[in-house]
Structure formats: structure tokens, C-alpha cells
Fold this sequence. Notes:
Elements: E1 2-14, E2 20-29, E3 39-47, E4 52-56, H1 61-65, E5 67-79, E6 93-95, E7 97-107, E8 113-114, E9 124-130, H2 134-145, E10 152-155, E11 167-170, E12 173-176, H3 186-194, E13 201-203, E14 210-214, E15 217-220, H4 236-246, H5 260-268, H6 270-285, H7 294-297, H8 299-308, H9 311-324, E16 343-345, H10 351-360, E17 364-365, E18 369-375, E19 381-387, E20 390-401, H11 405-412, H12 417-423, E21 431-439, E22 457-459, E23 468-473, H13 474-477, E24 486-494, H14 506-517, E25 530-537, H15 548-561, E26 567-569, H16 572-575, H17 579-599
Parallel strand pairs: 9-10, 9-20, 10-17, 14-22, 20-26
Antiparallel strand pairs: 1-2, 1-6, 1-7, 2-3, 3-4, 4-5, 5-7, 8-20, 11-12, 13-16, 14-15, 18-19, 19-20, 21-24, 21-25, 22-23, 23-24
Helix pairs in contact: 2-10, 2-17, 5-6, 8-9, 11-12, 12-15
Amino acid sequence: MKRIKLLDYRAIGTDDESDLVFLSLHVEISLRFFSFPSSLLRCRVYHAGTSFKFQLQFLSMASLTGVHIHFPAFISFKPLSPSSQFSPFATPRHTSGIGRIRCSIAEGPPAVSSSSENDSQKSMVDCVIVGAGISGLCIAQALATKHANSNLMVTEARERVGGNITTVERDGYLWEEGPNSFQPSDPMLTMAVDSGLKDELVLGDPNAPRFVLWNSKLRPVPSKPMDLPFFDLMSFPGKLRAGFGAIGLRPPPPGHEESVEEFVRRNLGSEVFERLIEPFCSGVYAGDPSKLSMKAAFGKVWKLEKNGGSIIGGTFKAIQEKSSSPRAPRDPRLPKPKGQTVGSFRRGLAMLPNAISSSLGNKVKLSWRLTTITTLENGGYSLTYETPGGLVSLRSRSVVLTVPSYVASTMLRPLSAVAADALLKLYYPPVAAVTISYPKEAIRKECLIDGELKGFGQLHPRSQGVETLGTIYSSSLFPNRAPPGRVLLLNYIGGATNPGITLKTKSQLVDSVDRDLRKMLINTNAPDPLVLGVRVWPQAIPQFMIGHLDVLDTAQNALSNGGFKGLFLGGNYVSGVALGRCVEGAYDVAEEVTDYLSQCVYR
Ligand SMILES: Cc1cc2nc3c(=O)[nH]c(=O)nc-3n(C[C@H](O)[C@H](O)[C@H](O)COP(=O)(O)OP(=O)(O)OC[C@H]3O[C@@H](n4cnc5c(N)ncnc54)[C@H](O)[C@@H]3O)c2cc1C
């Protein structure tokens, strides 16, 4: 570790993301002297105390100086006078002091070359994964751990890893502004354990209820078959209709690809659709069930009817098949969830991408925006990136694109217009995550269980006169998410049935959510909520609509028929949107990449 002297720095602005700050740095390093009189560096506040630490996420000094600096680097800073206060969030502000940057420095050629250099001097990696969301990082992790291949790079346009995963921690609160939790499936748990996070896992109480708003009342959803006769979300005739349909007394499947709405109304009746599945579609996809494809969006349930003649018939058949085929013993390292629940990590979901990124070290390149992909004469691909230090290119035997489909479409257009056109068809509606807190006393008495707000959260069917799609009881679900006496609520609003949310200001979004909550969960005379975060995702979640699987086939066939071997599509629009599906998809892609590399003739 060598030291770099920080001569001066100046905070000149903050990013949309509340924990990022732009700094202009003036530094001197011991090997050579150079300065950044007005360089714009993006920094994450790493630790606050009497001194401040920032994790630099700027990667391009190598091309400027010929000195290769391995990031992440840390700047620690002590104000010159103990009374001088520095807050990176109070900007613009000029502050001088004694600080230093700690990072490792190596002389010699950088790992990547500028685009002006001769191609032959560049080293070829086995795989470049574009996008450091959960999909991209898990593909890299699976290649490194399961397939012992670390000759890879992960490149990411943003200055942070995680993609949609956005954990924020401030003032005693810890909250999520993207996904809030995952299903603790075995692949997901394997990924967590392989990333060193076994002891950081937190699982929700499987007995905690989930609620649906119906006729102005929050009603619990049955969590086990024993609850079915007693829950009051559905009428007795509605339950009978569902039961008969589930055993096969219902109209046969039509000859076309069914929407979720058609499939559920036909198989289980209108009450199951309107009171359970429609709100559930909002919860998973923020989607419109009349447009989502049952086969693409909920393929496992769709297959039950196809394989067993009815939902119950298919369930029995699946159980029989599972018990008759020998199963590999379960990995003994994996924790066993006690029932149907959801999981996260002690310090939020971001722990997983951060842990994978740290173990990959300088194989992860941040602030690298892919601009073009071209094929190389003897096989493989050249990728060109815009980076803070200028254009950089990489050569790779294989490439996995885990960027959203509309980004992949732009990248692929020069290679295959058919693939590009297909990928452009997928729709990502906007969703806003509104995180607010109330004092505990603000919760209505009838919503408390043993004096506490208990449960996973609540979903709101579109027919019930509220705009908010659903509310997660974040402070009840996982420990240490809010200070004592406070309740932390994460609300999602928008989606395929309400794309107009993008026209609202952040305070209008908070007003809409607060107004909705006062109709069923919060006392009407409660004080205004403390607003922690309002994040609008303009293109949030890919919709698996009717025709989705055909669109994917068209894009993938166009690439393989066009001879683009070793170019793979990954990410949530391929694997499925839930985090667990992204992880399962990542293991599959890593397998495909490994198979491909083993056949590479030009290796
Ligand atoms: C508001 C919201 C709530 C959700 N809630 C849940 C939930 O509770 N549970 C659950 O299981 N799932 C949830 N999901 C879904 C889940 O979060 C996503 O499906 C998953 O995170 C997608 O991961 P990904 O890696 O496939 O894509 P992304 O996270 O989108 O990652 C793609 C990455 O590619 C990068 N990129 C883009 N362009 C370029 C370029 N040109 N060059 C380099 N990199 C580029 C992006 O910056 C990004 O980091 C939610 C999603 C949203 C938006």
C-alpha cells in the first residue's frame, strides 16, 4: 500500500443518489506528481466520524498517468481545526484539511488498453459480463466459484454495483429503494453462502401475516392450507369455485397463449383473481394481469395444469416425480428456512453485490459504459467503453449482456437488426419506491397484533380506490431497520396500470401514499410522515407479456443464426424478475459460457 497526499479537495455537488458526492480533488502521489485541478470524482461516503472516509469509484487514472492504481481507494480526511465541520451533503462547500488517499499502486502497463493501442497488445479475457446488477455479478461469481474461471471482467456504467438493488442507511434507518427482499431458495442461499454472507442472512418470520385490502379492511392472506376454510378475504362460493377449478372442474384451456387474468379466472374463478392474483401481480411485476402471459410470468403454475390436467393434478404429479427421482443431498452449509418467508441481509440487500464485487476485486470496472461491440476476425469480441479516463476497449472470447433489454437492443443493432428490434419490444413501466416513517402510535389500533405492527406488508387490488400498489412493513420484517418507537414503511406506486406517476413530483408521490395509508393503516390525525427516500424508476421491471417467450426466441435465434457465438443474453428479462430467478439464471448462463469456452477453437 502506498500513500497519496491529498492537497485539497472541494465538494461541488451531490448526486441524485443521496450517498454520493462529487469532489474536485488536487492530489500528489509519491511515484510521480500529477494533479486534478478540477477533476470530477464521484465518491461514496464510507464512514463518518471525526474523520471522513470516501470510497473512490473512479478508475481511469491509469490511462492518464501510466501508473496503475488498484481501486477501490479510500480517502480519509481530518479537518484542520477540530471545530470545522464538513458535511458532504451541504454543498457547494470549500474545505481544506489534511487528508490522504490509501490505495495500492503498481507501475507497469494497465490491465486494459486505450483504444488507440494496437489490438495485438491487448490481452484476451474469457468472458466480459456487461452490467454489475445481481445477474451480472452472480454470473461472475458462479464462473469463479463453480467453474474455477476467474479470467473475466464485469463492467458497469454506474459508479456503484448492484443495479436495481439500492440499500440506503441514514439517521438510524436502513431502507431499500429497489427490491426489498428475496425468496430464500437454495440457489439464492448458495450464492449468499459462497459470497461469505451466511452469518449476515436475515429471514422474516414465516408466521407473520400478509394482508390484502378488500372493502376498506386489511384482511390476512392464507399462508397454509389449514387457513383456507377460515380466511375472510373470499366468500364461501368463491372458495368452492376455486376448489372445484383446482381439481379440474372448469373450462378447458383455449388454443391461444393465455394472460394471467384469463388463466386464473378460468381455473380458479373471479374471486381468486380479483382478491389474490391481481394484487400479487402488482407485488411482483407492478404489472397488468390482463397483459402478462401466464406461461412466461408464472411458468411453474402454468405447467401444473399442462402436465397434470389441473392445478391439483399437476401438483401431485410433480410431488410424485420429485420423490421417485434420486435427489442430490442438500448442501449442508445452507441454512434451512422454517417456512414460506423472505430474506435479506443484516445491512440490507446491497451486502450481496458488494460482497461479490469485493471478492472479484479489480475485475469489476465501475463507470464503464459499454458503447459498441464488434466481432474480431479470429473469433471473440471487442468492446468499447466510455470511461472517466476516455475510451477504453477490451477483447474477450465471450460476452454476456445483463443490461436491460432496451440497452442490449442499442448495443446489438449494428450486429443484428432482428435481435435489436425484438428486444426493443419489451416494456418496462415506471415504479416509484416511497420510504416514509411514522411514530408507532400513528398505526391504527385494529391493525396491531399484540400491540405491534406485525406482518410482511399489504397489497392493494386496483379496484379498491387506492393508488399505492402495496406497502412493505420494513421495520417489522427485518431487525434494526428503524429507531425504537418508529415504523418504517416502503411503498410502491405506479406500474403498468399507472405509468402517469412520472408526471408527479416527489412530494406529490408522498402525498398520494400518505393519503392512501390514512384510509386503512394510519390514524387520520397522525402527524405528517418523515420522508426518507423517494426513488422513481422510470423503466423499472420488464413485463413478461403475451408473446414474451417468442420475443426472446427471436432475439436469441437471430444471434445464433447470425454466427454470433459466445454472445449471450442474460439479466432479469431472460431469467425472470425475482432476485432468486436472476440468481438461478446466472448459474445457467455460467454453465453455458463454460460449455462454450471449452469448445472455443481459438483459445
Ligand atoms: C422498484 C423495484 C422493486 C423490486 N422489488 C423486488 C423484490 O422485492 N424482490 C425481488 O426478488 N425482486 C424485486 N425487483 C426485481 C429485481 O430487483 C430485478 O429483477 C433485479 O434486480 C434485476 O437485476 P439485473 O442484474 O438483471 O438487472 P439490473 O439490476 O438492471 O442491472 C443491470 C446493470 O447494467 C448496467 N448497465 C446499463 N447500461 C449499461 C452499459 N451501457 N454499460 C455497462 N453497464 C450498463 C446498469 O447500470 C445496471 O447496473 C424489483 C425491481 C424494482 C425496480
